[in-house]
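Case study 2.
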Amino acid sequence: MITSAPAKFILLGEHAVVYGFPAIAAPLNGLCAHASVHPAPVGAGLRIEALDMNEVLPVELEADAVDNALALTAQKVLKALNVAPPDAVIRVTSHIPMASGLGSGAAVSTAVARAVINAVDADIDDDALNDIIYDIEKLYHGTPSGVDNTVVVYQKPVYFLRGQPPQLLDIGGALHFIIADTGEPSLTKVTVADVRRLYDEQPHVVGNTLADIGAIVERARDAIRNGDAVALGSLMTANHHSLRALNVSSDALERLVDAAIDCGALGAKLSGGGRGGHMIALVAPDTIEAVSAALSSAGAVHIVHTQLGADHDHNP
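Prediction:
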């Protein structure tokens, strides 16, 4: 039995979300964490083998102060189901880069949770599972926003406004995205701090830019609901221009954004903290290969295609 959970990416609204404006995040189904369940001898109990980390983690139902996220995930699921640990081994792998803003922690925890549920032949609804993964996110982020776990568990875009629960977004039609990695590290806390300094120096100018991003996100929410790829693409590019005005782009990101648009993408922008990391392009199905090739030629080190809506709008 194999379970999976997707990565997540910021579609629109990064940086402005820090100042009380909305943002939209979405699942990245082209990058996933996986967990498989294997039988163990009677009396062996449950253990998790994190293959990428070379860790073997025993799961004890009554253990206190569990500080490993995967072991704690399994324990919380077993307690929610009120069942004893099964005699099984759960093997975990992930293709999602860690500490890259793609929700690796939430995805791995969700894959493990679903594997535990399968191992005991039970079921938990998504609302209850989301609550569990949110609790696990506190180990990673202290006071998480709730975006990562909600996007990953429900596999739907989320509209997020700081201080409010994330809202799931319906998708009116198939939307195709290409996510490309610049290969350059991106430290979100650095770019967030730099935008704060810029805001302090030029509050009126920067404040207007942030408000523009907020308005773009509101219009994009309607475009997603309507499945209007052309409108959404235009809004993504406008969002990128605003982020560039905040000095969080980079030469590598600009090359990739320009390459995507020049090759026919409906829109493109940086995604996340900026100055490295990833960019995203919205494309029509018949331009996926051409835009991917153009991004590769422009220096992208890793490229993933993902689809939102239509037949990809499902749980694993």
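The longest strand covers residues 23-39.
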